[in-house]
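Good morning,

Attaching, inline, the C-alpha cells for the sequence recovery test we're adding to the shared suite. The designed sequence is right after.
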C-alpha cells in the first residue's frame, strides 16, 4: 500500500485539512489513509473524499510517509503508547523515517519526541478559520527535522491558510493570539451588532453590517499591508463620529482588554502544557 499521508483522527480539523489538501491536489485520495475510531465518521470520509480509512492507528503509522496527528490532546498518551507497541514504521528499509506532524494543543515537542523515538516531529498550531481555508498556522520543528520535512508540513498547512515558523517557546503566545483570537473577534462582531440594535437597526441588518465591516477591514489591511493605525487615522476626521466612538473605546479600556486576553490565554496554555 503506497500511502503518502496518514491522518490519525478524522474529526473537524482533520477533515478540514484533508479536504483542502485534496482540493489543491497536494495528495491523491488513494495516497491517503485516515484512522478514525467512529464507524460513521469513516463512512463519511470515504463517501466525501474517496480516501482509505481504518480503525487501526498502527496501520496508518506503519504505512505513511507523513503522519498527521489530529486527535484530542486528552487521548495522546493512549494513542502514542499504541503506536509505540506497533512501531514497524521505524523499519530500517525506509530511506527516511516518516515525519510526525502534531496539531495537539499543549503537547510539547519533547513529549512528541519521547513518544516517537527517532522519528522527526513537528508541532503545529492551526486556528479555527482553517476549516474554511482562511486560517493561520504556526509550526515549530523538533531536533531531527530536515528542511524537506519542514517544506512538507508547510505545504499541508498552506492548504488551509498562511504559515509562520516560530521557536517552540513562542507556541503558548501563538495560542493566546491566533488560537484563541477568533473568539475575541466573534465577541467584537456580536458587540458591534448589539450596538447597531441599540442605535435602532434591525438585528439582521446590524449583524450583516458588523460582520461585513470586520471582514472588509481585515481584507483591506491584508491586501494593502497598511498599518492598522494608518487606517484608523484615515477614517477619523477632526470632531467627527469616529473619534467620538474611539474615545469611548479608550475610556472602556478596549485595547487593554484585548492585550490582557491574549496574555491570560498564553498563561493558561502554559499551565495546560505542564
Amino acid at each position: 500500500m503506497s500511502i503518502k499521508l496518514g491522518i490519525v483522527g478524522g474529526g473537524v480539523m482533520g477533515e478540514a485539512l484533508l479536504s483542502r489538501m485534496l482540493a489543491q491536489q497536494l495528495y491523491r485520495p488513494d495516497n491517503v489513509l485516515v484512522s478514525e475510531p467512529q464507524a460513521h465518521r469513516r463512512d463519511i470520509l470515504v463517501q466525501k473524499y474517496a480516501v482509505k480509512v481504518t480503525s487501526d492507528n498502527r496501520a496508518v503509522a506503519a504505512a505513511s510517509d507523513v503522519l498527521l496527528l489530529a486527535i484530542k490532546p486528552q487521548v495522546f498518551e493512549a494513542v502514542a503508547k499504541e503506536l509505540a507497541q506497533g512501531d514497524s514504521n521505524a523499519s530500517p528499509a525506509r530511506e527516511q523515517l516518516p515525519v510526525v506532524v502534531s496539531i495537539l494543543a499543549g503537547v510539547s515537542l519533547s513529549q512528541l519526541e519521547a513518544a516517537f523515538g527517532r522519528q522527526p516531529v513537528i508541532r503545529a498550531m492551526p486556528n479555527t478559520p482553517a476549516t474554511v481555508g482562511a486560517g493561520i498556522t504556526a509550526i515549530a520543528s523538533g531536533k531531527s527535522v530536515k528542511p524537506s520535512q519542514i517544506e512538507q508540513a508547510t505545504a499541508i498547512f498552506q492548504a488551509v491558510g498562511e504559515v509562520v515558523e516560530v521557536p517552540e517557546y513562542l507556541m503558548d503566545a501563538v495560542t493566546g493570539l491566533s488560537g484563541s483570537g477568533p473568539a475575541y473577534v466573534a465577541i467584537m462582531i456580536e458587540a458591534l451588532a448589539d450596538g447597531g440594535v441599540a442605535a435602532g437597526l434591525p438585528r439582521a441588518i446590524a449583524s450583516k453590517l458588523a460582520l461585513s465591516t470586520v471582514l472588509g477591514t481585515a481584507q483591506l489591511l491584508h491586501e494593502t499591508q497598511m498599518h492598522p493605525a494608518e487606517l484608523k487615522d484615515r477614517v477619523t476626521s477632526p470632531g467627527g463620529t469616529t473619534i467620538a466612538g474611539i474615545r469611548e473605546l479608550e475610556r472602556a479600556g478596549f485595547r487593554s482588554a484585548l492585550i490582557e486576553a491574549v496574555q491570560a490565554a498564553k498563561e493558561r496554555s502554559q499551565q495546560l502544557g505542564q
